[in-house]
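User: Teach me something about this protein's shape.
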Amino acid sequence: MFKLIREDIQTVFLKDPAARSKLEVIFSYPGLHAVILHRFANKLWKNKFYFMARFISHISRFVTGIEIHPGAVIGRRVFIDHGMGVVIGETAEIGNDVLIYKGVLLGGTTLEKKKRHPTIGDNVVLGSNAILLGAINIGKNAIIAAASVVTHDVPANATAIGVPARISLGHSPDEVNKLEHAKLPDPISEAMKFVLEEQKMLEQKIADRIRLLEEKIKSISNK
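Assistant: First, the predicted structure itself:
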């Protein structure tokens, strides 16, 4: 447990350039407080101390503005930046090295007591106010753009952007932490660009065929 907490503190320095000292991080980062309190609440939840787990979760929500159900599974080195308004449901699962910005919702879409919240892979970035609903899977190294609404699976190394979110493929794992949130690829414009390029290729093929046909006709008429 304390090894995980040390990792959580170190992760703040890796993912937030504003962090200046351990003292500042320990006492002034609500995202860190929420994750640490969740680790204790989750331990109690696993041991069936449900009331105490929910109570700690409730106190954490009051203090940090971040609501994490004690049943949710959170991996190592997860950082919630600022965090106000983040809501993580009971059956949500979050992998390692995930970066979560303020206002993110990992919500459910059914009243049945089953897996009903998203599963987030390793090294995923969840942009501000992104909404992810249902028992969907977000592949590792994926990026969910700010204010996107995701209701379907997102493959690894992909970017989901828009309402509803559309998938843009192609960035490498090395680009995940370097990709600027304001310059994410637009899958609609990418699709239009692809169509225009295909149209240009077809037009060129037609022009080449017409030219060859004209040359054949000219050759026949000369004979």
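Now, about its shape. The chain has a mean pLDDT of 88. The chain has five helices and 15 strands. If you'd like, I can walk through any region in more detail.
User: That's plenty for now, thanks!
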